[in-house]
Design a protein that fits this description.
Largest sheet: none
Helix content: over 70%
Number of helices: 3
Shape: elongated
Mean pLDDT: 91
Number of strands: 0
Radius of gyration: 21 Å
Order of helices and strands: HHH
Low-confidence stretches: none
Length: about 110
């Protein structure tokens, strides 16, 4: 019978303590991301309601461009792919604009 390789896949029971520790950290970060996004959307919902009330447009392309550029710089400083960061932020901005349009349409 041969000895298992040190690089062999972990057992399906999930008994690899190193992998489990990494996964626990990832799970904690994912939870924090969800809470941060929820808070961000609570604030942007209030912005959307305000914009609807004072008849401002749902989108602000100048602000969006500045935010994207700012977050691209932060991404570079954090050694995170700026393209990924921009796609992620664009996804969030598009969703916020959709919410703002909904607030405008129901005002």
């Amino acid at each position: 019978m041969s000895n298992p390789s040190p690089h062999a896949p972990a057992s399906p029971t999930g008994a690899d303590p190193v992998l489990n520790a990494y996964r626990k950290s990832i799970d904690n970060i994912d939870a924090a991301l969800i809470h941060m996004l929820a808070e961000r959307f609570r604030i942007t919902q209030a912005v959307g309601e305000y914009k609807a009330k004072v008849t401002l447009p749902p989108a602000d392309p100048d602000r969006e461009a500045k935010q994207i550029e700012r977050l691209r710089r932060l991404s570079e400083d954090a050694d995170l792919d700026p393209e990924f960061s921009e796609k992620f932020l664009r996804f969030i901005i598009d969703e916020v604009i959709r919410h703002h349009e909904k607030a405008r349409d129901s005002a």
